[in-house]
């Protein structure tokens, strides 16, 4: 062996020895250079944006690739991800609001975690929409078209009856009272988003709306928190529903419960929504524009039967049943109360309501930009005090 080769071997031996010494003495260095972390980074490299047709077939293409490059060198915060995605229902006209929402969740959380995004629309997304959104993150982004049978009013709905219901709500000045598209959205979010081909490969989702705000840093993984603690549904804001939009919903729910007692969880949260064992509904529900939840729950036999039963009654169109009370009531009846989680440390705003933790330590740790004094938690229209009382925290 010649002299040069000996020197090379000696230098390599020194480098390897130093690597192992530093790995054992500096935990952060060890994690960053571990094989599992390197494999995780390779797995979650930017994959561009894909545009998916009604059948779920996708033609992957890259949008704004130069904009993605600065993100590629950021260090992932963890070695393991949940099988999870963000889901955003948006129209092309929602572009600016969607940009703001994605930018904020990236800045506050996802730039370190790189969870993928699924964007859904009842019309094809424009190239401009995809280009503007795709430069915001190195995470995988897929753009899907909603199947017509999942979105539009079914043929079996009695249109004369539905029209009469809408006209009455317009006369009563109920928000979205005359809107068919709003009802399409409520029905879709109640029973179909988790069945979309792009969503089927995931178990967990975080629902994000256009033009919402995230006010605090999230330095842990809420998906893994839910998974590890056996939670199925979470919220940040809870409030009363407009009774005029759901006049027959509770009766329909109780009819279903009587027909299917096998689906009712033993330690359920019915007491949060009713003080008389279900005879009446106090109108409390979780505000579903923020949700982190387990889609296996929605795909399971209890919720599938529940949604199908509600859908056949036509209340999404004859009245204006929202996905918020539908999801909330289902979680309260078919899951244990301990499987429902309140994310106090996630500062969240959907105009006009905001949740901002009043816990000083959490507020400071999250570098929160919100004012705790403006938090909706104990507003007269909030149900949060009822939730705390029900859970024995007041």
UniProtKB/TrEMBL annotation:
<comment type="similarity">
    <text>Belongs to the glycosyltransferase 15 family.</text>
</comment>
<keyword id="KW-0812">Transmembrane</keyword>
<dbReference type="GO" id="GO:0016020">
    <property type="term" value="C:membrane"/>
</dbReference>
<keyword id="KW-0472">Membrane</keyword>
<feature type="transmembrane region" description="Helical">
    <location>
        <begin position="7"/>
        <end position="26"/>
    </location>
</feature>
<keyword id="KW-1133">Transmembrane helix</keyword>
<dbReference type="InterPro" id="IPR002685">
    <property type="entry name" value="Glyco_trans_15"/>
</dbReference>
<protein>
    <recommendedName>
        <fullName>Glycosyltransferase family 15 protein</fullName>
    </recommendedName>
</protein>
<keyword id="KW-0808">Transferase</keyword>
<dbReference type="GO" id="GO:0000026">
    <property type="term" value="F:alpha-1,2-mannosyltransferase activity"/>
</dbReference>
<dbReference type="Pfam" id="PF01793">
    <property type="entry name" value="Glyco_transf_15"/>
</dbReference>
<dbReference type="InterPro" id="IPR029044">
    <property type="entry name" value="Nucleotide-diphossugar_trans"/>
</dbReference>
<dbReference type="GO" id="GO:0000032">
    <property type="term" value="P:cell wall mannoprotein biosynthetic process"/>
</dbReference>
<dbReference type="GO" id="GO:0006487">
    <property type="term" value="P:protein N-linked glycosylation"/>
</dbReference>
<dbReference type="GO" id="GO:0005794">
    <property type="term" value="C:Golgi apparatus"/>
</dbReference>
<feature type="active site" description="Nucleophile">
    <location>
        <position position="291"/>
    </location>
</feature>
